[in-house]
Design brief:
The chain is of the alpha/beta class and 391 residues long. Helices cover 49% and strands 7% of the residues.
């Protein structure tokens, strides 16, 4: 008979997993590249586990994790963990790590000192590298000396660590999002409108399921665009690695990139982190404009219409319409954005509408008029249509 249960759940950083037993939570799994791989990692660790609805305690834990990853103030210290089989030294490391509040950090050496074992920083790092309770035991809050990021064993490495720290750091600070990071429109009303206006899209919505898009927090327009520049024309994994290296060049990287960082550092160091020459020049131009006051503030951009934002931000070298549209969707949560030049959108349309060829820009734009004023939601479902075709 199975002694463990597990479930997957959506968060702003992707699909996570949680497993539990009679004594409490036994594992929290950060997202892998695909949901099926997240499930496989949990089953690899607990082959006897069955996928099932969470217990009341597990549901409280996962809801608190989701809230934390939205940038909300959340306390995971009361989550019961089953540490049976965890070595005693690791238990002590995890107990100290759990005392670090969101937005704060310790170094490996400082944590070793709190254990009463100065000189054991390497052993502390090894214990955190084997942490089975990600987020609940916040190993991402433990850094190397000098405020450097150090390592991280989860998918995405230091880029994932940086993202978790940035989310927590943004809590209580000015954000590129309204309120708690929820959408600026009613997704239920949006889906009802799309289902009424387009029967084919209605079938796609039924096949994909609930609308699960989450907004990404950023401390400034500059930080959001700097990340977007690094990610252009690369896979998420490769771009995340490079972005993590760039941020790790500066102290306290969880506070986000700042214009003065980019203006002061040498080309050689940025190139060594993996930036191409064009992206380096784009970041330099972005930093100069931000330092000179040419970029709109968070408060200003919230007041601007979509097209006005596109016009302002595409003046930056290397920032095109598509990049700004991604910002409008995933950072600002604007409801009516349809990136007609996006390959995934065009491919998703061809899949959903059973077209042999990708639609032209004007064809997609014309058909998309029936989705107004919720073309952002339609876009999200078209991206999911491509995923449905993958094994």
């Amino acid at each position: 008979m199975s002694t463990h249960g597990f479930t997957l759940f959506d968060t702003p950083v992707g699909t996570c997993g949680i497993a539990w037993g009679a004594r409490g939570v036994v594992a929290v799994q950060l997202p892998e590249a695909r949901e099926i791989e997240t499930r496989a990692r949990l089953l690899q660790r607990f082959p006897d586990a069955r996928e099932m609805p969470p217990t009341r305690e597990a549901e409280i834990a996962l809801n608190t994790i989701v809230a934390l990853l939205r940038g909300e103030a959340s306390d995971l210290s009361s989550v019961a963990l089953d540490m049976q089989g965890v070595p005693p030294f690791h238990r002590r490391v995890y107990e100290i790590a759990r005392s670090i509040p969101p937005g704060a950090t310790l170094s490996y050496g400082e944590l070793a000192g709190r254990l009463g074992a100065p000189g054991s920083a390497r052993a502390v790092g090894q214990a955190l590298g084997r942490n089975p309770f990600a987020i609940v035991v916040p190993c991402h809050r433990v850094l190397a000396a000098g405020g450097k990021l150090g390592g991280f064993s989860a998918k995405g490495g230091v880029a994932t660590k940086l993202r978790l720290l940035s989310i927590e750091r943004a809590n209580g600070s000015p954000k590129l999002l309204d309120g708690d990071g929820t959408l600026g429109f009613d997704p239920v009303a949006a889906i009802e409108h799309l289902q009424r206006s387009d029967p084919v899209l209605a079938r796609l919505i039924d096949a994909v399921g609930p609308f699960r898009m989450r907004l990404k927090i950023a401390p400034s327009i500059f930080a959001a665009l700097a990340e977007a520049i690094v990610y252009q024309q690369l896979t998420a994994r490769a771009a995340g690695t490079i972005f993590g290296r760039v941020c790790a060049l500066f102290p306290q990287p969880q506070e986000g990139l700042k214009p003065e960082h980019i203006l002061r550092i040498s080309d050689e160091k940025l190139r060594a982190a993996g930036l191409s020459r064009p992206k380096l020049l784009s970041l330099r131009d972005l930093a100069r404009r931000a330092a000179g006051g040419d970029l709109p503030s968070i408060a200003e951009v919230q007041r601007l219409e979509d097209e006005a934002i596109v016009e302002r931000l595409t003046q930056v070298r290397g920032i095109g319409r598509w990049t700004v549209e991604m910002l409008l969707i995933f950072r600002l949560g604007r409801p009516d954005v349809l990136p007609v030049d996006d390959y995934g959108i065009r491919k998703g349309f061809a899949v959903a509408f059973k077209k042999r060829e990708l639609p032209r820009r004007d064809q997609l734009q014309k058909h998309g008029t029936r989705w107004k004023p919720y073309r952002t939601v339609a876009s999200w479902y078209l991206w999911r249509a491509v995923e449905l075709t993958k094994p």
